[in-house]
Amino acid sequence: MTTTPEPNEADSAYGGDGDGDSDRHSTVSLGSREGLCFTEEYGRRYAVFGENDCLFPSDEQEKVRLDLFSHMIEQVLGKRLHCAPVHLSAGNERVLDVGTGTGIWAIKMADLHPTCLVTGVDISEIQPVWVPPNLGFELFDVESPWTWSHPYTFIFARQLGGSIVNWSGLVRQCYGNLEPGGWVEIQQLDLEHYAEGPLAPQAGSRVRELCDLLSLALFSFRRRLGVAGHVEDLLRRHGFQNIVHGRIKVPLGNWPKDPKYKEIGSLRQWELERALEALTLKPFCKGLGWTPEKVRAFLDEVRSEIRNKNGQEKVHLTSTL
Ligand SMILES: C[S@@+](CC[C@H](N)C(=O)[O-])C[C@H]1O[C@@H](n2cnc3c(N)ncnc32)[C@H](O)[C@@H]1O
């Protein structure tokens, strides 16, 4: 359970500067193109797009992690790319991938549906240049007004918890840019883990602490980590119909007996161990005032707990997509 207060999306009074040691870390502009540039902080590369100072890196390490994450979610969904019952075979349907990251989902959708027009948008230019002919990537801040002239058949957004300030605005723009009968799918794998099985009376304390601390840190940037319940409520408030909130268990570690879930749990462990630094370094330093050394020492403890090497009885952790 988290005791973190909920960020108020309408209130812009929250400061994003924190009182951390960010001033002690110089920001280096690595390149720029039409408002885009990258900065290097804490040894990681972050995109900067207009006013939007990204909290999570988008460097080579992160690209590898995002592609592995995408593969893992496909396994979780039984090799499907989405759950919405959208029909994309009539031709010229339009698909939008919001916060496309490396673009891997958009590329697969474009390959799978060659008569669809797929667009992937992101504030970080980390997508490949060679892509299917029916796919285009745009550098675009989805929190700014959407100016596309044609509505979309299917709008997809995955793993944007902690990135978006105004979820209500995003859901409103999805609604306004959707064809009648179109679908929106928003996926988020929770960082909140709970214990499973008779061996685990309580979830690991460091893993839980991580989630609580990150929620708190993101709050200082007016962002929320856990978005699933909130978004479901917003979809309803903005007039969407046929809302389905599915929950799928995702194990952490290779403890499941079922080979499918054993593989998923192993992938999740690999992915989460690499996500830890990406998720926490900047938010903890700038939002909570931690030093990078303190963050890394804390993450060592989290990793140790995830690997069950801390002398505790084996803890079977699970989270929800
Ligand atoms: C955790 S990654 C998820 C990437 C992809 N959706 C996936 O699941 O593989 C979040 C992505 O959202 C992008 N992002 C964050 N804020 C954004 C914004 N305001 N507009 C567009 N993209 C944004 C980030 O640059 C990053 O690539």
Automatic annotation (TrEMBL):
Region called Disordered, residue ranges: 1-27
Matching InterPro entries: SAM-dependent_MTases_sf
Gene source species: Capronia epimyces CBS 606.96
Name the UniProt record assigns to this protein: Methyltransferase
One function term, GO molecular function aspect: methyltransferase activity
CDD domains xrefs: AdoMet_MTases (cd02440)
Name of one Pfam family that matches: Methyltransf_23
PANTHER family attached to this UniProt entry: 2-METHOXY-6-POLYPRENYL-1,4-BENZOQUINOL METHYLASE, MITOCHONDRIAL, METHYLTRANSFERASE
